[in-house]
Write a structure and sequence with these properties.
mainly alpha, transmembrane, transmembrane helix, about 95% helix, about 140 residues, rod-shaped
Length: about 140
């Protein structure tokens, strides 16, 4: 080997090494750029998802408040219905008492009607007697 060949080989070897180092650096740079873009897109997607979740949470909070208000109204209605049903049992016993009193009143009225009919019969007999005496005189 000549003395000229050694520097040439060193330059050639150095050039190949520099080319390989630059190539590896370019590949690393390309990979890092793609990784940055991928991570950045993932962060953007995560931010959009979080915004949508926050919006849905606010919407659902409103719906939950509305449902709570409806449940409170339904519970108030159920309480009113329960009070009415409890009152109906009291009313049922009162109605039974009123029916009993009406039936007693009907019996008393029938007795009173019998007495009136008896008085009417005696009045008619007395009237008949008085008319026959008036005709006879």
């Amino acid at each position: 080997m000549d003395k000229i060949d050694i520097p040439f080989l060193l330059v050639a070897f150095g050039s190949v090494c520099a080319f390989l180092i630059l190539g590896l650096f370019a590949i690393f740079n390309w990979w890092m750029k793609n990784e940055y873009v991928r991570v950045h897109r993932a962060q953007e997607m995560e931010a959009r998802i979080m915004n949508r979740l926050d919006e849905e949470a606010r919407t659902h909070k409103g719906e939950i408040k509305e449902l709570d208000a409806r449940m409170d109204a339904m519970q108030a209605t159920i309480a009113k219905i329960s009070a009415i049903l409890e009152g109906m049992s009291v009313l049922n016993s009162e109605l039974k008492e009123i029916r009993r009193e009406i039936s007693q009143g009907n019996a008393e009225f029938a007795g009173f009607r019998g007495e009136i009919n008896g008085v009417k019969g005696r009045f008619e007999a007395l009237d008949h007697t008085l008319r026959s005496k008036a005709l006879n005189s």
